[in-house]
Amino acid sequence: MPEALREERLRKLEELRARGINPYPTQYSSTHVLGQLHQEFKALPSGEETPAHVQVAGRITARRVMGGASFYDLRDQSGRIQLHATQDLLGPERYQLFTDLEIGDFVGVAGNIFRTKRGELSVRVEDFQILAKALRSLPEKWHGLTDVETRYRQRYLDLIANEAARQAFITRTKAVTAMRRFLDGQGFLEVETPILQPLYGGAFARPFTAFHNELKQTLYLRISDELYLKRLIIGGFEKVYEIGKDFRNEGISTTNNPEFTMMECYQAYADYRDMMALAEQMSYSIAQELGKTRLTYQGHEIDLTPPWRRWALREAILENTGLDIEKYSTTESLQKAIAQKKLRLELKPTWGQLVDELLSEYVESKLIQPTFLLDYPLEISPLAKRKPGAPQWVERFEFFIGGMELGNSFSELNDPLDQRERFRLQEERRRKGDEEAPALDEDFLMAMEYGMPPTGGLGVGVDRVAMLFTDTLSIRDVILFPALRPRPKEEERS
Prior knowledge:
This protein is of the alpha+beta class. The protein contains 16 helices and 19 strands. Strand 8 (209-212) and strand 9 form a beta hairpin.
């Protein structure tokens, strides 16, 4: 059936061309976007017409043809307005051409503004121009497209059909703009670092690989911006940030997509305490611009007003599991304690990974109000500075809102010899089969040996920030084109 409708639209397209009408002109000059008309004429009483002559353009989303008079709905990004066309005003031939327009077609319209007796702001069509003939029909229930597969694979239909989807992506853009404005206002310099890298690093993750034909070299899509941004700190840029794409060749979930957007910033002469203040101030500033300092996320009322809770990771695990991880200093003893308490957990091969698994399984989902979890195991934080007096821990925090991790921060390690030893230990893990362990980066170590000042670093997941401010449970709803499994062959042919 869809193919038959397409054939009918192709026939109408050829009829337009046979009549000398270009169904895909290059340009149309509008005087207003539709939202402006509603603002400008909001005081116009019902049944009144103005001499104001406007030109507007958009997509037809509804049509009601009733003999010599027709009512169409026209939409653009800013809103909707009704079109009223009559045979008396357009003449028989032009009116017939107008009524041949179908849902999905783009049209430019010129005419006066009036308000119907029922209060509907409308344009009285005096002239029109076809701007683009649609060859496929919009979904039957275009005003409420709910099929998740269609929404993600054909995002353009989702944006046409669902006002909530449009508003979610507008909110995302506003949040990123507010983030950028805040950092610029704090004196940070926005920079760009390589996406294709000869060696990946800055996180525990498997990379995507590519091959450069001219260089005859395997390159990696970056998993983090960290090591290049630190090179800039070494080079004398004391406050830098980047908002860009990172890539990790790993699983897909409601909070993870292989291609995602991160904001990473680094500040010389700062530590993780300074970055805590920065994180909560930035988040609150974004919330103020969006008008959402108090918001609802998945049924929870959340207040983003600083200061946020600071909570030691050890204490958070103890409160939620009854397990004091400091009493079990080896992997074996911690595994035994976990088993004795009958905690459901994937038993990881290292002590630090076990601690991280306890956090993920028993703590994260309970961190609804904004919370900084402080001080993480050294072995899962190879780029962070040791905590004074507690060498098995590092000065690191992650912050959580709505049961979801939004960011990660360190007092950055700036001792090149300590960093080399950390890399060496990660190399041993790699040789034992840990594909996520970072590689030893000689170029970065050489840069560190020229001297790096004390530095605080912060990474924030932009997609998760968007999830928070749009009350969205799945990351796919805030990424315009998320990663999806290939369609079955039979679906591709349909």
